[in-house]
Specification:
The protein is mostly helical. Helix content is 55%, strand content 3%. The protein has 13 helices and 3 strands. It has a 3-stranded antiparallel β-sheet. Strand 2 and strand 3 form a beta hairpin.
Length: 399
């Protein structure tokens, strides 16, 4: 399932009859060698519309299930749609049924209208800034002709694809969050002097850290439980993407359970780091008494607030029946909050490294140290942690 973490497919062309996958080789067969590691773009997030990357996955899923050979009108339309996808034309579509937000219209129908030159499309200036423009203007700038669809059969039969596309992206982000848990746990164990940075066998671990706090004794168990969770859920999502054209039942509850565990682990580890009894008597930024001064945020308190909201998302999703719509909007909100908790832990670990003179040994820690230096070395504000969370997610998502 490691292929679900690969975003190398975004730079490839869609070949009629053999479309390139947005998630890289392995999930779906693709042509050509994998390119070198590249940064993941920073896409805009809007509560009412799908992000551009999710929309592109949704359109790719549609194209991968419909033929482009032949001379009929549908085949002509799909070839034109594939050419638009290759040229990175990206419609603006609302969150559809089952996502918990938006007007409830059919997202694929909106994508078809945009492909025909109606509605809105995303446009990037090449410097990471995305904005909404009329679809006709975007097509004209790209030198593309509108793609007119005769009927609605293809989009009606694929109404589960928008939810599936969003579930796939949430899963990729969740896997990166579990990777952040792994990196954070390794760094914490090394800095606090609890031996190896790798998971211990259960018996050896019990002997080695018996007197340590619970979160120190059980960090690796929580990480490994999350790894098992996302691996199992990844297999279900892959099967759904290949065979079912709709997300598996209960996937939102599974994702919320796993990301709550990850956010809880990050929050408890940060609380341990801030305790002078366990960090060598060092008073770190969040425990220095300046937490509410000059716009600074109370990081431990904010982490607790985020965990509370994540729990409120978890309970309704777990109790929902099979006929209830999947809560992908709640998953998106919980993911954002969980990444905030992970970034707060990483910034706390970076401050401890700075105070103890420990040198970063992995690129992600060197990058986090750079972000820390740019903020002046003071306790970060909520916005600074949010920016660090976005950077951390993109860094760990990059193939």
């Amino acid at each position: 399932m490691s292929a679900l973490l690969s975003w190398s497919g975004w730079g490839r062309r869609v070949i009629p009859g053999r479309y390139c996958p947005p998630f890289g080789r392995g999930v779906f067969e693709s042509a050509g060698p994998a390119p070198a590691r590249s940064a993941v773009p920073e896409y805009p997030r809007d509560a009412d519309v799908q992000p551009p990357d999710v929309t592109r996955t949704m359109v790719w899923l549609l194209l991968s299930r419909t033929p482009t050979h032949g001379t009929g009108h549908d085949a002509t339309w799909h070839r034109a749609l594939a050419e638009q996808w290759n040229r990175e034309f990206t419609p603006v579509v609302p969150r559809g049924p089952g996502t918990g937000a938006g007007p409830g219209g059919q997202p694929l129908a909106h994508a078809a209208r945009a492909a025909a030159g109606h509605g809105l499309a995303w446009w990037s200036d090449g410097r990471g800034t995305w904005r909404k423009v009329p679809a006709a203007d975007a097509l004209r700038r790209l030198g593309l002709d509108p793609a007119h669809q005769a009927g609605r059969a293809a989009t009606v039969l694929a109404d589960g694809l928008p939810g599936l596309a969003e579930a796939l992206h949430h899963h990729v982000s969740l896997r990166a969050l579990v990777l952040a848990n792994t990196l954070g746990t390794r760094r914490l164990l090394a800095l606090l002097g609890h031996g190896t940075e790798r998971p211990h066998p259960v018996a050896e671990q019990g002997e080695h850290v018996l007197g340590a706090p619970y979160i120190m004794r059980r960090s690796w168990q929580l990480v490994l439980a999350s790894v098992d969770h996302v691996t199992t859920e990844g297999a279900r999502l892959t099967h759904a993407a290949i065979h079912d054209a709709q997300p598996p039942a209960g996937h939102a509850a599974q994702q919320l359970t796993c990301l709550h565990r990850s956010a809880f682990l990050a929050g408890r580890q940060q609380a341990l780091l801030l305790d002078p009894r366990h960090n060598g008597g060092i008073s770190l930024f969040a425990a220095s008494g300046r937490s509410t001064a000059r716009g600074r945020s109370d990081l431990p308190g904010t982490v607790r607030e985020h965990l509370t909201v994540i729990r409120t998302h978890c309970h309704p999703a777990k109790s929902a029946t099979g006929a209830a719509p999947e809560r992908t909007a709640e998953v998106a909100d919980a993911l954002q909050r969980a990444w905030w908790c992970a970034a707060a832990l990483f910034m706390t670990l970076t401050d401890l490294c700075r105070r103890t003179g420990a040198q970063p040994d992995v690129s992600v820690w060197r990058g986090m140290a750079g972000l820390w230096t740019s903020s002046g070395g003071n306790e970060p504000s909520g916005d600074e942690v949010a920016r660090a969370a976005g950077w951390l997610e993109r860094e760990l998502l990059a193939p």
